[in-house]
Design goal:
Chain lengths: ~160, ~80
Amino acid sequence: MNEIRNSICRRFFVGFLCGTALASGGCATTASTRSENVKTSGLYADLSVTHRPDDSVTVSASLHVGGRYGTSVTLSGVDHWEVNGEAFPASDPGSTLIAPAADSTYNLTFVRSDEQVTTTIVAPANPTILSLTPDKIRVTDRLTITWDATARHPTAN
Amino acid sequence: MPPPGTQLQINVTGDCLTTQQAYNTADDGTLTTDMFSATPDPRTTCPIDIAIVRTTTFRVNSSFEGGLASGLRSAIGSVEYIGNN
């Protein structure tokens, strides 16, 4: 009788451990939800435009449920992103390389079956380096950097 | 949700430097660094890269629950670290 009871207890214990491991490990590594199941008002959007010195521009867009560090959202259904009217490549829904806009304004639009939600990002002015002094630094030196701070800071939205 | 604004960060890196230095500074056009920490051998030299990253943040469309939108542009310069030479 005791053996049967012990066996049942062991199985419960092992089952509990497995369940806990699946719940914590499984959720931490694979948790995501499909965008078509979430209203726009329940989505947190993390958007960025990076304009590099070589004039390449990368745009990234990610969505989460439950705040910035919440469950990630995978685009599904007809949901997709467009940048200045051009769709992100289907194979690269999170980030994409695009040509720089002439006026540095990027409209990122989340396109759904029933709405289009646009956020405007204006790339800041290029922080042009004016001088680096001295140009040869010794161990006891400090470097003075000057850059163009007269650039206009953009406003949007 | 933070309001729109602009930040400037300067990152200093170099193969012979023992620490990378990052400065979050006002976008007022000038910054003087601390002295650099470098490898003990004063004969060591290396190029030092200086990257200036200007970031502007915006609110996302209010249809979303929340979020952050940012635009970044950067410039890179270089000087030579010459130790005790």
